[in-house]
Sequence to fold (413 residues):
Amino acid sequence: MTTITNITRTADADYELLAARFRPLFARIAEGASRRDREHELPRNEIRALIDAGFGALRVPVADGGFGASLPQLFRLLTELAAADPNIPQALRGHFAFVEDRLVSSGPQRETWLGRFVDGETVGNSWTEVGGVTIGDVITKVSPDPDSRGFLISGTKYYSTGSIFADWIDTFAQRTDNGVKVIAVVSAHQSGVTHADDWDGFGQQTTGSGTSTFDAARVDAENVIDFDTRFAYQTAFYQAVLLAVLAGTIKGAEHDVAREVRTRTRIFSHGNAPSFAADPQILQVVGEVSAAAYAAEATVERAARALQHAYEGAFLDDEAEDERRNDVAELETAKAQVILSSLATRATSDVFGALAASGVSTAKNLDRHWRNARTAANHNPWVFKARIVGDHSVNGAVPPRIWSIGSAPAPGA
Fold:
């Protein structure tokens, strides 16, 4: 027998070693996902177990105590996690975005934050304001604290995904002393910070989204960061997490429909086989859902590679090339969003074509896959992204990398 002694280590092999650490946790998370959705139980213990295993430090370099995962590896893991429970990667979306921002930053605070991530501290997200705020305005304000060298923050944010689980909150605000828009990183463990789990969407119900309120909460001076220094591929990064959520949701739906078909004992007289598991028409439906999951995972992989190139571009000392890579990442994630929004909602609906009336039982809760996909797809309307992609294809227009939501300005403003 020939013994192979010189096997080249591959990226897939490295990924499998990394994923093996977390897959037992993913399996346990999957076991309770349907029940948590049905009972609206926040996955506090599940997120804590992941963080205690080092999941929050995936991107932290090995030299700093983390795993040194590449962005393609991170998004493959997020997709696997989303197949178990798509609420959890979305709840960690703000955390991984802030980790990314600290990775490309410089100065002493970079080391401080990387150490916090390794120690198991997490960051939530708190950017969006609802109500009468006009596009371009920021109601949440950061003011100098007369009693210290720090600041005080006051305001209310909605869609503050993951903040209810977090130690810190990445908050978009505006300074009152100079008008500069900033990221205020607020400690969640203080008076003056409250959270409400009042997100009322029909899907992604346990992401911990809802209202965060800041009432003269303290912010250290070093944690008030000019927004213009934020990592340039942030919008593409945020979108890519939602892509992983969609891809994982299809994979989770495939797993559940395959189990239902495999274990079903009743058949129809006008079917094609003595069991559902052998009926070629039923198998075709499951196969099409499986193919959709495959396409979705491949799409996420390609978008993640573009993000990796954008990350590496931040260290090239070549502004033109850095800009080009960031534009490519924005376009790649936009294209992926356009296709996955429809692919995920269709595939998670098509699973019911392989089932009978019992498939819509509320006890089975299979509709959660469609509800989750539809909800994740509604973040950042894909129609605008399709237009942006088309404008680039036809006219070479540069995609916008920063955008906001709010009321239309008054006429003439």
